[in-house]
Design goal:
alpha+beta; 2 helices; 3 strands
Length: 105
């Protein structure tokens, strides 16, 4: 069985980034829930003085992809800090109670 992808180039994948997605989506809060079969990441933009926030993006990952994402993010934070210095974080961050839908498998 061939290990080529659909374009016929072994080991290469073409990834398309649409103009709409290239702009990106701002998020300063992520709520993470999980079930036995998936991790759900709700990316939220909380604005000062606004009593309500909306989920801007929801990503649903398998557990193995969630673990790979965590490792890749840790690696990138480490490389960022080597280049730009330590990222300072507050010890305790106030997080509003999440009252959104609860995941079910």
């Amino acid at each position: 069985m061939s290990q080529n992808n659909q374009t016929g180039n072994p080991g290469k994948m073409e990834i398309e980034l649409t103009q709409e997605e290239a702009i990106g989506t701002y998020s300063n809060l992520v709520m993470i829930t999980h079930s036995p079969s998936e991790f759900i990441l709700d990316f939220i933009a909380v604005m000062p003085g606004v009593p309500k926030a909306k989920v801007a993006k929801r990503m649903i990952l398998t557990p193995d992809h969630a673990k790979r994402l965590a490792g890749a993010l840790n690696d990138n934070v480490r490389r960022y800090e080597e280049e730009h210095g330590t990222i300072n974080t507050r010890e305790k961050v106030e997080i509003p109670m999440y009252r959104g839908p609860q995941p079910e498998a």
